[in-house]
Hints:
- The chain is about 30% helix and about 35% strand.
- It contains 8 helices and 11 strands.
- It has helices at about 15-20, 70-75, 120-125, 135-145, 185, 190-205, 215-220, 220-235; strands at about 5-10, 25-30, 40-45, 55-70, 85-95, 95-105, 115, 150-160, 160-170, 175-180, 210-215.
- Strands 1, 2, 3, 4, 5, 6 and 7 form a 7-stranded mixed β-sheet that branches. A 4-stranded mixed β-sheet has the order 8-9-10-11, with helices on both faces.
- A hairpin with a 2-residue loop joins strand 8 and strand 9 (about 160-170).
- Helix 4 packs across helix 8 (about 220-235).
Amino acid sequence: MEEIVLVCIVPRLGDWDILVKEHWYHIPLMSAPEITTLAKYLAFYQPGVFGDEKWAVNYYARVLGYTIKKRIELYPDQIAHKNRDKDYYQIFVDDLIKLKNPVPSLRWRRIVFIPTTLERLCNAKEINDLYKSSPIEDVLYGEMKRKGILPERQFYVKEVGNTYCLDFGVFCKRRKIDVECDGKEFHSGEDAHEKDRKRNNELTSYGWSILRFSGREINETPKGCVEKIKKTMRKLGGEK
């Protein structure tokens, strides 16, 4: 049975001190991933404030348990914080374990939570190897990697108050490509097609080219899908 790991960001050095000395990490209840209470381990992404260990997952820890508390109970000195009365998970962890091979982010990107498995965490070469999403995304990602393409998985784009989560972001010299995997569950029917069309138009207006592949295309001809991606990349000046 796969052991679930939740990769979390540690945005501040003060949060790291709490993690190391007091052995707990907090997650807002309203924004916590569904698998939060199922995770056997937490792993920790360290951003730019962490010097030599920045922009990578270097450590993980076994989950010992959790409770739910108001933020003001966790941080009694932050009485003016806007979320002081909101509910948070306080997740208790064992001692930090250093990964034999750090998992770096090859490109600056927004990282919040990444549900993964212990096997993926221990074998990942870079941050995108951690993502455990749909089977068709895994198939296409594997084929892109084999062909030397380095996409960003579950890439968030924020534009004029809107946030979009792309299945894959591919960055070229003249333009960016949004590669979408359209499984039947979420992309069938007139309403879904209308939603996808509007999303395509919005992202195109923000400077993205969009490629969409059905689950059938990906499962039956993954190499053909990747050839279309590579052809588009060449027209856009190649990978950046």
